[in-house]
C-alpha cells in the first residue's frame, strides 16, 4: 500500500522565506509520521508568488535527506538559507530496523563508481565504504541508495534493493499522478467536500489499507476548486467511487477524484493551514495501516 501526498507549487504563496521553510518542515514531519511514500509538488503557476515550485521541491528534498548526508548532497544553496529551522524527521526503515545499531537500514550517497560493480558510498559512517552494487541494480554517482549495516566494527554493509527510509519528493502534474494505476483511493481534501464522519471513515480507511491513497491539498486562500477552476458550489455533497467533478463544473478534462472530503469538519478556525490539513487527513485515512 502506497501513500502519496500532493501539494501545489503555490503552497508558500503568503509566507516569507523563513516562514515558508517552517511550513515545509511541518509538511515533511506529517509525511514522515504517517509513513507517506512520496510528496508530489504539482504546478499552480497562477497562484505562485515569490516562493514557487522549485523552492518547495528543494526544501522538501533537503528535509528528506538525512543530516549526515546534507552537506555532501546539497552544499550551499540560496533556497536553504533557513534550513536550520527544519525539524528533525528521524524516519525509520519500513522493515522496522533502526538507524544506529547492527542490522540497521540507512540512506547512502554514491560518491564514486568503480570497476567490477563496486561503488563508494557515504552512509554516515566515519569514512565512505566500498560496496558491491546488486547485479540487477544500476547505480550512478550522486544516487541515493539503501544500505543495510550488519556490523560497525569491523564495518560490514551491503546495498539492498529497498526504498530508503522516509519519503521521496518529485514534481509532476496532478492528472499524471491521479491516473497512475496504483493511485489507490484518490481524495481531494477541501472544506467544500463531504464532511468526514465516523460512519464514513471505516470503509474509506479499509480501502486505503487495501489499495493505497493519493490525496491532494490546496494552498493558502487558494483551495483545490480555485486551483482547478471549479465552482465550489457545484461540488456534490456526496461522491461516488470512480466519479470526477461534473463536467459542468470543471470541464471535460477535470482530474478524476474518487472523493472530495472535508477532513476537518466544523473547523474552529476560519482557515485550516495546508500542513494542518495534512496531519488531520492522514491521521484519519491511514488508520488501517
List keywords for this structure.
alpha/beta, 11 strands, 2 domains, 5-stranded antiparallel β-sheet, OB fold (Dihydrolipoamide Acetyltransferase, E2P), 24% strand, 289 residues, Alpha/beta knot, 8 helices
Please explain how this structure is put together.
- The chain is of the alpha/beta class and 289 residues long.
- It has two domains: 208 residues, 3-Layer(aba) Sandwich (Alpha/beta knot); 57 residues, OB fold (Dihydrolipoamide Acetyltransferase, E2P), CATH 2.40.50.140.
- Strands 8-2-1-10-9-11 form a six-stranded parallel beta sheet.
- Strand 9, helix 5 and strand 10 form a beta-alpha-beta unit.
- The longest helix has 17 residues.
- It is globular and about 65 Å long.
- 38% of the residues are buried.
- About 7% of the residues have low confidence.
What can be said about this structure in brief?
This protein is of the alpha/beta class and 289 residues long.
- Strand percent estimate: 15-25%
Overall outline: globular
Please, how many domains? 2
Helices, by number, come to 8
| Major pleated sheet | 6 strands, parallel
CATH class of the largest domain: Alpha Beta
Helix content: 25-40%
- Average pLDDT, to the nearest integer? 88
Provide the spatial order of strands within the biggest beta sheet. 8-2-1-10-9-11
CATH structural fold name of the largest domain: Alpha/beta knot
Task: Detail the poorly predicted runs.
Answer: 96-101, 239-252
Annotated CATH architecture of the largest domain: 3-Layer(aba) Sandwich
Given helix and strand content, the structural type is alpha/beta
Amino acid at each position: 500500500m502506497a501513500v502519496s501526498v500532493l501539494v501545489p507549487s503555490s503552497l508558500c504563496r503568503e509566507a516569507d522565506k523563513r516562514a515558508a521553510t517552517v511550513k515545509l518542515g511541518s509538511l515533511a514531519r506529517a509525511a514522515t509520521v504517517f509513513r507517506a511514500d512520496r510528496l508530489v509538488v504539482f504546478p499552480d503557476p497562477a497562484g505562485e508568488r515569490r516562493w514557487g515550485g522549485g523552492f518547495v521541491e528543494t526544501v522538501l528534498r533537503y528535509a528528506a535527506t538525512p543530516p549526515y548526508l546534507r552537506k555532501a548532497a546539497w552544499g550551499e544553496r540560496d533556497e536553504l538559507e533557513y534550513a536550520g529551522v527544519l525539524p528533525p524527521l528521524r524516519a525509520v526503515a519500513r522493515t522496522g530496523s533502526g538507524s544506529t545499531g547492527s542490522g540497521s537500514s540507512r540512506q547512502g550517497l554514491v560518491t564514486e563508481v568503480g570497476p567490477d560493480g563496486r561503488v563508494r558510498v557515504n552512509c554516515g559512517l566515519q569514512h565512505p565504504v566500498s560496496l558491491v552494487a546488486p547485479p540487477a541494480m544500476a547505480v550512478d554517482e550522486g544516487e541515493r541508495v539503501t544500505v543495510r549495516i550488519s556490523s560497525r566494527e569491523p564495518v560490514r554493509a551491503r546495498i539492498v534493493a529497498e526504498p530508503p527510509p522516509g519519503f521521496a519528493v518529485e514534481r509532476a502534474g496532478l492528472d499524471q499522478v491521479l491516473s497512475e494505476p496504483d493511485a489507490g483511493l484518490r481524495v481531494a481534501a477541501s472544506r467544500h467536500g463531504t464532511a468526514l464522519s465516523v460512519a464514513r471513515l471505516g470503509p474509506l480507511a479499509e480501502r486505503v489499507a487495501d489499495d493505497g491513497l493519493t490525496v491532494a491539498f490546496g494552498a493558502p486562500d487558494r483551495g483545490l476548486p480555485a486551483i482547478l477552476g471549479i465552482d465550489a458550489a457545484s461540488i456534490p455533497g456526496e461522491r461516488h467511487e470512480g466519479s470526477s467533478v461534473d463536467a459542468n463544473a470543471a470541464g471535460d478534462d477535470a482530474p478524476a477524484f474518487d472523493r472530495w472530503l472535508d477532513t476537518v469538519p466544523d473547523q474552529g478556525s476560519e482557515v485550516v493551514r495546508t500542513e494542518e490539513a495534512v496531519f488531520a487527513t492522514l491521521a484519519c485515512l491511514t488508520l488501517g495501516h
